[in-house]
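REQUEST
  id: r-88c1
  op: predict_structure
  target: NAD(P)-dependent oxidoreductase
  payload:
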Amino acid sequence: MHIFLAGGAGIVGTRLIPALVRAGHDVTATTRRTERLDVLHDLGARGVVVDVLDAPHLAETVAAAEPELVMHQLTDLGEYDTEANARLRRDGTANLVAAAEAAGVDRMIAQSIAFAYAPGDTTATEDDPLEPGSAVGTLEALVHRLPRATVLRYGMFYGDGTWYAPGGRIAGAVAAGQLPATPTITPFVHIEDVVSATVQALDWPDGTYNIVDDEPASGTVWLPVYASGLGAPAPRVAGLPDAAPRRRTVSNAKARAVGWRPGYPSWRDGFPTL
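RESPONSE
  id: r-88c1
  status: 200
  body:
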């Protein structure tokens, strides 16, 4: 299958390309920076430079690639700019969907998140609503304009190259004692399991899937374990401010039902250890 991978130079994309190539697929992958083209080539993809916020150029690029499927792995969190990331989810996704439609591509697989469900007291499944007005809600609605759409709601990434790896953003904050342990629940997923699920999703029925491990946990549970593994001070325990998100546990039963098995069933299996 010829796949147009939007976001080929990101943390997911750079791991997906070799996995997709090993599975026998032909990959055209995007980057916004010319200097990243050699990286994409070395990973096994045909690299193209395009900014998805440039709708005319994006439409030309997708049409020229003639893909059978568009895979959306775009984020903009290099500087932890949540507004830029929200714009990418809304405007960038709209442009990508429009480009796919114009090129006659009827199938898309897109990255979403599993920690944007509306508040509730039960474990969240794919049938539960997302927070009203969220950028990921807009992203998902846009993707579902296509005849065949698969949305993968990933948990919080951890593993090599993520913010939770030693030297990463979260690891640095924990080492400095800046991150308190709160009751906020986090559904995690190891970056290797993100890749395995995404490749397998090519063969799944269209739809929405939570890609999370088996043990979503509150910060009062996972953060002390994580800090200990880093050799960092034990975190202080704090309550949640009134405006803070109160996330829910999340079920991965639907993905398991189509055959996915996380290689790291719990964050306990993959967190750093001394």
